[in-house]
């Protein structure tokens, strides 16, 4: 695959001394790279086949705390091993780390060596298999936004994440003169990712002081999810090396724009040559297949919102007038809606889901979009007329779930997702969501202290 090294090429580069470290990484529920640093010689001799890790790593929270109540792993079961199986088609050079390459891994059951069903990569692979059975190939692209700070992570922590200096003091959306001031970091990110085999198209200023967006070329869904997690990790590592900090929080400041991860998706023939969403004679050039796909995503948007917005903070992004959507409607090139038609009149026609935040796990988000799109095809759903106007003001329009608690409830009730992903998978992530809510509900926040310390 373009941008990747073959295993033979890796062995050659290890033999020549060009590479001495291999990162063998899988993706956890939070979308982070988790794994081991191997001496390159040992990896190419032996560890390329498999290594092992504690199964609590897919049954913990963002603080790495083992969470009680999971069926898949627990203290009672002893937190045993699972297999970390390198996918040797994903080897890539990591140029911002010295003599380093990375390989992404699948997670297998320790006993029967089959994919762990609740592993994020396995969840997406299962949906891609459903597409393949029908002769479809899914192309995806995720656009990542983040805030760049003239702080280190250490200085931000020392300030208790208050009064931090952003890379720009005011909004610099598309403004070249302002983003030039930030380009030492952004250039390093663009070039570093590109040299790692991730085809960066551009970066730009976004609608917040110090806010950035980076876009990479679309790809098959699994490859795009792989690029997404390497990209997020790389942005943080490169910024750290340059004495800066980045956040992918959906809403780090109430008064500023949130950070999104818009997801573009379309279906093509199995060979990737024929766009199945394009019909030059149809209304808006949307094929019947595309209309059913979009109708399914709209019908089941509430069911999979958790996969687009997995934290308490995620829902604070959904504010009117901020370019973040608040309504589950589709539109023609309208950024106030949850779903936007892009590329009308061309083979690049696609639907953009604007609901997801920069904090999403791409494997789970893509899987939810595919499962709902396939449900729309299976149910032969009719697509409503596109919304026109300001969706923020549409009082009768269906709201995107407003809280994690609401999204958790819709996920738990989703018959469609239980059939598509498996009941155990849905139960696993419902438990994850409920733990996140529980942890928040029992904490005392700065906002509560400010309002109530003297006044209650």
Automatic annotation (TrEMBL):
What Gene3D superfamilies does UniProt report for this protein, alphabetically?
Glutamine synthetase, N-terminal domain, Glutamine synthetase/guanido kinase, catalytic domain
Give the molecular function GO annotations: glutamine synthetase activity
Kindly state which keywords UniProt assigns to this record, in alphabetical order: Ligase
The EC number(s) this enzyme carries:
6.3.1.2
- Sorted alphabetically, which PROSITE patterns does this protein's record hold? GS_CATALYTIC
**A Pfam family for this UniProt protein?**
Gln-synt_C
Cofactors per UniProt? Answer: Mg(2+)
Q: Entry's InterPro entries?
A: Gln_synt_N_sf, Gln_synth/guanido_kin_cat_dom, Gln_synth_cat_dom
Tell me the ranges covered by the GS catalytic domain, including all copies: 120-456
Q: Which domain of life is it from?
A: Bacteria
Enzyme class of the recorded protein, top EC level: ligase
- Family listed: Belongs to the glutamine synthetase family.
What protein does this entry describe?
Glutamine synthetase
Q: What organism does this protein naturally occur in?
A: Phyllobacterium ifriqiyense
Q: What is the organism lineage in this UniProt record? A: Bacteria, Pseudomonadati, Pseudomonadota, Alphaproteobacteria, Hyphomicrobiales
């Amino acid at each position: 695959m373009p941008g990747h090294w073959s295993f033979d090429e890796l062995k050659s580069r290890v033999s020549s001394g060009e590479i001495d470290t291999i990162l063998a990484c899988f993706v956890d529920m939070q979308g982070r790279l988790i794994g081991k640093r191997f001496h390159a010689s040992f990896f190419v001799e032996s560890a390329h086949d498999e290594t092992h890790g504690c199964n609590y790593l897919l049954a913990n929270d963002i603080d790495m705390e083992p969470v009680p109540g999971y069926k898949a792993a627990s203290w009672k079961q002893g937190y045993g091993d699972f297999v970390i199986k390198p996918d040797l088609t994903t080897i890539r050079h990591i140029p911002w780390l010295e003599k380093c390459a990375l390989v992404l891994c699948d997670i297998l059951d320790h006993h029967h060596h089959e994919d762990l069903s609740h592993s994020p990569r396995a969840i997406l692979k299962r949906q891609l298999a459903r597409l393949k059975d029908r002769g479809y190939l899914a192309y995806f692209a995720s656009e990542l936004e983040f805030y760049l700070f003239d702080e280190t992570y250490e200085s931000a922590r020392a300030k208790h994440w208050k009064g931090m200096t952003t890379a720009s003091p005011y909004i610099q959306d598309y403004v070249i003169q302002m983003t030039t001031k930030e380009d030492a970091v952004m250039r390093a990110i663009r070039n570093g990712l590109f040299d790692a085999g991730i085809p960066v198209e551009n970066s730009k200023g976004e609608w917040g002081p110090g806010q950035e967006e980076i876009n990479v070329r679309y790809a098959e869904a699994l490859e795009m999810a792989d690029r997404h997690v390497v990209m997020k990790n790389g942005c943080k590592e490169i910024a750290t090396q340059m004495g800066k900090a980045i956040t992918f929080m959906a809403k780090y400041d109430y008064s500023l724009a949130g950070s999104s991860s818009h997801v573009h998706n379309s279906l093509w023939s199995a060979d990737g040559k024929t766009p199945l969403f394009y019909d030059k004679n149809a209304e808006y050039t949307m094929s019947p297949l595309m209309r059913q796909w979009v109708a399914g995503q709209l019908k089941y948007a509430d069911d999979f919102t958790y996969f687009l917005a997995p934290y308490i903070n995620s829902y604070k992004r959904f504010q009117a007038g901020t370019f973040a959507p608040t309504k589950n409607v589709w539109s023609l090139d309208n950024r106030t809606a949850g779903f936007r038609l892009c590329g009308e009149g061309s083979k690049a026609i696609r639907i953009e889901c604007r609901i997801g935040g920069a904090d999403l796990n791409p494997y789970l988000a893509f899987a939810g979009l595919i499962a709902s799109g396939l449900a729309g095809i299976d149910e032969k759903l009719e697509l409503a007329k596109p919304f026109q106007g300001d969706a923020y003001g549409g009082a009768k329009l269906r709201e995107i779930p407003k809280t994690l608690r609401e999204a958790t409830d819709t996920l738990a009730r989703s018959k469609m997702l239980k059939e598509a992903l498996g009941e155990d998978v849905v139960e696993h992530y419902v438990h994850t969501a409920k733990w996140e809510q529980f942890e928040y509900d029992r904490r005392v926040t700065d906002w509560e202290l400010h309002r109530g310390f003297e006044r209650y």
